[in-house]
């Protein structure tokens, strides 16, 4: 995924499914470096992780 699509997802009112290593995640923010994003697992756990945006995939 790229910066532009991450920004679109963050500003979208729709629920866009994104996965990281096959696991569904919420994208919390695009980090200042423009190469990473902060995400957390969908569900009750709120643990946040920083990942490379190129490793995120949009599910359709």
TrEMBL record:
<dbReference type="Pfam" id="PF08141">
    <property type="entry name" value="SspH"/>
</dbReference>
<keyword id="KW-0749">Sporulation</keyword>
<dbReference type="InterPro" id="IPR012610">
    <property type="entry name" value="SASP_SspH"/>
</dbReference>
<dbReference type="GO" id="GO:0042601">
    <property type="term" value="C:endospore-forming forespore"/>
</dbReference>
<dbReference type="GO" id="GO:0030435">
    <property type="term" value="P:sporulation resulting in formation of a cellular spore"/>
</dbReference>
<comment type="similarity">
    <text>Belongs to the SspH family.</text>
</comment>
<dbReference type="GO" id="GO:0030436">
    <property type="term" value="P:asexual sporulation"/>
</dbReference>
<protein>
    <recommendedName>
        <fullName>Small, acid-soluble spore protein H</fullName>
    </recommendedName>
</protein>
């Amino acid at each position: 995924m790229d910066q532009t699509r991450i920004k679109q997802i963050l500003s979208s009112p729709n629920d866009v499914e994104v996965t990281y290593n096959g696991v569904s995640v919420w994208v919390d923010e695009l980090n200042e470096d423009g190469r990473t994003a902060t995400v957390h697992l969908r569900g009750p756990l709120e643990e946040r992780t920083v990942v490379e945006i190129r490793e995120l995939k949009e599910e359709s």
